[in-house]
Design goal:
alpha+beta, 37% helix, 307 residues, 12 helices
């Protein structure tokens, strides 16, 4: 008789979990699908490809009480990404004369929400927010835990689930849906503006915290991702502001944006050009030398003010 194998025996869980998806990172690589990565902590630059950067081992792995490990959350991210990649690709191939379809903007918004909450910089924030689950108040009043009779589960049951590490990690898949329940999220897309490099070359770098905001609402499940700047690719920037820029951005904005990306990143930034990355590092270090790195992001947003 053939022995039946469990799902865990049939499929070995993945280990390398990218918090910046490889498909997204390809928008910042050269013709050899490589880029140069600057490590702020070690102050060095190395050459790699999307497979070898912006990941953590077992970042989305879940350990069950019996000892089995699952990468179900990683598979969930893959499903969301597969839904969004077509739209992201259309936007990456667009130019300043290409109208962006609402459906593509909606898919990009969904991708950004999942991206924001999966970043390593938000791990502790997610764990804190998971404590609000199943209370049926506040941002998560739509998230209910009921028994078979439709009654609210006992407090002790809710607490056991909330305190489990598996649920704390799984909550990264729940928070992105809050704006769809609690906000007029479609209205946000009206304030989106896409800006393209004038020479059609890749001047935008990417970092491990690529959604740059003023930081006031980053931990707010409802109001995050209302005002931010995001590199769609090395050639395209998405700017979302309550008062969108009404002019062409000056050439100097590219330098200021890249310095802001370097400031917001916890550790890694990547660029297809070694020479350009080295120049940006030197520029950033001038701010660091004079203790002015905290002024970089406000200065960038100041350049986006309408005339």
């Amino acid at each position: 008789m053939t022995e039946c194998k469990s799902a865990s025996q049939m499929k070995k869980p993945s280990k390398k979990h990218h918090y910046l998806p490889q498909f997204y990172l390809k928008g910042f690589t050269n013709s050899q699908n490589t880029f140069f990565v600057y490590d702020k902590r070690k102050d060095n630059i190395f050459l790699t490809n999307p497979s070898g950067a912006f990941f953590e081992n077992n970042l989305n792995a879940v350990l069950f009480p019996g000892g089995d490990s699952s990468d179900l959350l990683e598979e969930g991210y893959t499903a969301i990404e597969n839904q969004c990649w077509g739209s992201l690709n259309k936007i990456r191939e667009s130019n300043e004369k290409t109208p962006i379809k609402v459906s593509d903007a909606m898919n990009l918004f969904l991708f950004l929400l999942f991206l924001h909450w999966r970043l390593p910089s938000n791990v502790e924030v997610v764990e804190k927010l998971s404590e609000k689950a199943f209370e049926e108040i506040g941002e998560f009043d739509w998230l209910k835990l009921l028994n078979k009779s439709g009654e609210k589960a006992p407090k002790e049951v809710r607490e056991i689930i909330r305190q489990s590490q598996a649920f704390k990690k799984a909550f990264k898949h729940i928070i992105p849906f809050v704006p769809f329940f609690k906000d007029d999220w479609v209205a946000r897309l009206v304030n989106w503006r896409f800006f393209y490099t004038k020479d059609n070359k890749s001047w935008n770098i990417v970092g491990d915290s690529p959604i740059i905001s003023m930081g006031d609402s980053d931990n707010d499940p409802v109001n995050c991702l209302k005002e931010f700047v995001f590199p769609v690719s090395g050639k395209i920037l998405l700017v979302s502001l309550n008062k969108p820029p009404n002019r062409v951005l000056p050439p100097a904005f590219s330098i200021e944006f890249n310095a802001a990306m370097m400031e917001r990143s916890q550790r890694f930034v990547a660029c297809k050009s070694l020479e350009f990355l080295e120049a940006l590092v030197k520029y950033y270090k001038v701010y660091a030398y004079f203790g002015k790195t905290d002024t970089i992001i406000p200065e960038m947003f100041k350049m986006l003010d309408p005339i």
